[in-house]
């Protein structure tokens, strides 16, 4: 049963907290998903850093005053805290919210690899939430957007035939880098078409009519952080430190929705394939480089702001109310 049904709305209430800068498009997406899914909250607070405190924001026919995240008592009476403000903010204020009894659903990478913190995609790992209860203070990690989109399709296949090796190439949209980057892509497109030098404030590379490696920092092993998130988070999701995962993450000049090419090698032959997930799955074909039907190529696409962040976080919150 959907938590937006009248039965739940009238009997269950949750006080929700949103920690993030108001310029972050993901926060507005969180609010939109709350409305679309008719999430049954009793009261709502909006928090941000001191620079945004005092601002007014209209939501669902009411106007809210943004409160200072660092103010004393900021987490008093909070049941569910949805964080979308970056790792440093989550690491600083997440434990404070937990100490006041809140369940923190965190969109950053701060706690994803903590063995004590569940990493959750509700459709594929609901069992990870088994020990999380309202009123008992806990942190739940929202995975990286690319990992969510990939594993929505790959996990059912892994459970069916066990993935031994996964090769992922991502084609990541501009919205993953924020609202300012989206505006710069619009500006660059116009400038390039007019024969002007493109403005480059967000990325060093030209974005319009170009593709380049994801802008995450490159590590000592030659992979960037975005690629290693895919590797580490997949192993944690599948509870398999030996599964072989490699990724190449690329920025492409589109506004919304990440796409991913995924190659899977299985322990046993496949006898069927299902693509009935919220993430779109296509180009399903056997890997001709492997024998005995033990390989598969698929192409997946999903909205990294919605399912890759906001929707997944709200779905986690909904699980707490069941």
TrEMBL record:
Active site per UniProt: 145 (acyl-thioester intermediate), 258 (proton acceptor)
Domain Semialdehyde dehydrogenase NAD-binding, first and last residues per copy: 26-132
Lineage top rank: taxon: Eukaryota
Pfam families: Semialdhyde_dh, Semialdhyde_dhC
GO molecular function: NAD binding; oxidoreductase activity, acting on the aldehyde or oxo group of donors, NAD or NADP as acceptor; protein dimerization activity
GO biological process entries: alpha-amino acid biosynthetic process
Family annotation (SMART domains): Semialdhyde_dh (SM00859)
Family annotation (NCBIfam families): PRK14874.1
Family: Belongs to the aspartate-semialdehyde dehydrogenase family.
Descriptive protein name: Semialdehyde dehydrogenase NAD-binding domain-containing protein
């Amino acid at each position: 049963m959907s938590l937006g049904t009248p039965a739940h709305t009238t009997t269950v209430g949750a006080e929700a907290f949103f920690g993030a800068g108001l310029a972050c498009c993901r926060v507005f997406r969180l609010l939109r998903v709350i409305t679309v899914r008719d999430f049954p909250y009793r009261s709502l607070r909006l928090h941000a850093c001191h620079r945004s405190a005092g601002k007014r924001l209209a939501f669902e026919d009411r106007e809210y005053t943004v409160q200072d995240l660092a103010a004393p008592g900021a987490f008093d009476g909070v049941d569910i805290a949805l964080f979308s403000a970056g790792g440093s903010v989550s690491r600083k204020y997440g434990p404070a919210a937990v100490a006041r009894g809140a369940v923190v659903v965190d969109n950053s990478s701060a706690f994803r690899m903590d063995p004590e913190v569940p990493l959750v995609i509700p459709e594929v790992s609901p069992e990870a939430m088994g020990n999380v209860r309202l009123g008992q203070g806990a942190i739940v990690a929202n995975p990286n957007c690319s990992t969510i989109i990939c594993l929505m399709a790959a996990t059912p296949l892994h459970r069916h035939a066990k993935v031994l090796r996964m090769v992922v190439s991502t084609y990541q949209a501009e919205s993953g880098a924020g609202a300012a980057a989206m505006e710069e892509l619009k500006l660059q497109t116009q400038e390039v078409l007019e024969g002007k030098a493109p403005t480059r404030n967000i990325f060093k590379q030209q974005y319009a009519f170009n593709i380049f490696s994801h802008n995450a920092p490159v590590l000592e092993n030659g992979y960037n952080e975005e690629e290693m998130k895919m590797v580490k988070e997949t192993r944690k999701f599948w509870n398999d430190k030996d599964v072989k995962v490699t990724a190449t993450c690329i920025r492409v000049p589109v506004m919304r929705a990440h796409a991913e090419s995924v190659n899977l090698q299985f322990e046993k032959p496949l006898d069927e394939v299902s693509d009935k997930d919220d993430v779109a799955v296509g180009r399903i074909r056997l890997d001709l480089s492997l024998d005995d039907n033990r390989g598969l190529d698929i192409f997946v696409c999903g909205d990294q702001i919605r399912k890759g962040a906001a929707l997944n976080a709200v779905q986690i919150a909904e699980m707490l109310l069941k």
